[in-house]
Amino acid sequence: MIESDHPTQRLTGKVIVVTGAARGQGAAEAAALTRAGAQVVATDVRPEGDCRRLDVTSESDWAELAADLRKTYGHVHGLVNNAGVIQRDRLGAVRPEDFAHVHAVNATGPLLGIQHLAPLMPPGSSIVNVGSSAALTGYYPVAYTASKWALRGVSKVAAMELGPRGIRVNTVHPGYIETEMTAAATPAFRETTIRETPLGRSGTVDDIAPLVVFLLSDESAFITGAEIPVDGGFTAHGGVKSISDAMRPGTPDTQDAP
């Protein structure tokens, strides 16, 4: 559990669960939510620091978390489905078992989180699903791209189904964000991606976290079912094809992807 040092901020009194919070984007989101006054329950499959262990693909882990939250707090006011994995194989190479694993983490995990935590949510609560610019394009790592498209569907249905209960569900679509996940990309891949980004730079975790805070706050009380790219304009002009072409066999690296 992460304690707040700012009890007068806009998320005071709200209990918010963040998955994949041990490092990178999830850690930044958890920290920003804490600064805004929330009681953050940080989780990760590889727990570090204040994180509680949670395998998002495990229904029993979610059930145990929900029971503990009910006992400790009584309610949950927010969920950030941030945990995710990438698999970089292209269409002709991806194995069914890898395809299934990526979907289990990136799409089924958020579904399980919603199923188990939504019953604890009072009106005014908010769920933020973390998608990807891949979910808005035909991006070439097929398992990852398909899983993020699936998450879009989960989000839309959840917004419709939970709306009558006063629970909002929105999706944030990060572009190329500087994290451990993207650190393995070749310089050529990074440079090509930035060339396709109108703002001319990669993003940082601090470009994402403030939006997550806003979507979990009462300031976004009439926003649900929305999809918000945070990608420097990358998906606005359909530039993914040129990146895909640049990464085809015969180029320095065909396996990198954000």
TrEMBL record:
The keyword Oxidoreductase applies. It comes from the Bacteria. InterPro entries: NAD(P)-bd_dom_sf, SDR_fam. The keyword Oxidoreductase applies. Pfam families: adh_short_C2 (PF13561). Keywords: Oxidoreductase. Belongs to the short-chain dehydrogenases/reductases (SDR) family. This is SDR family NAD(P)-dependent oxidoreductase.
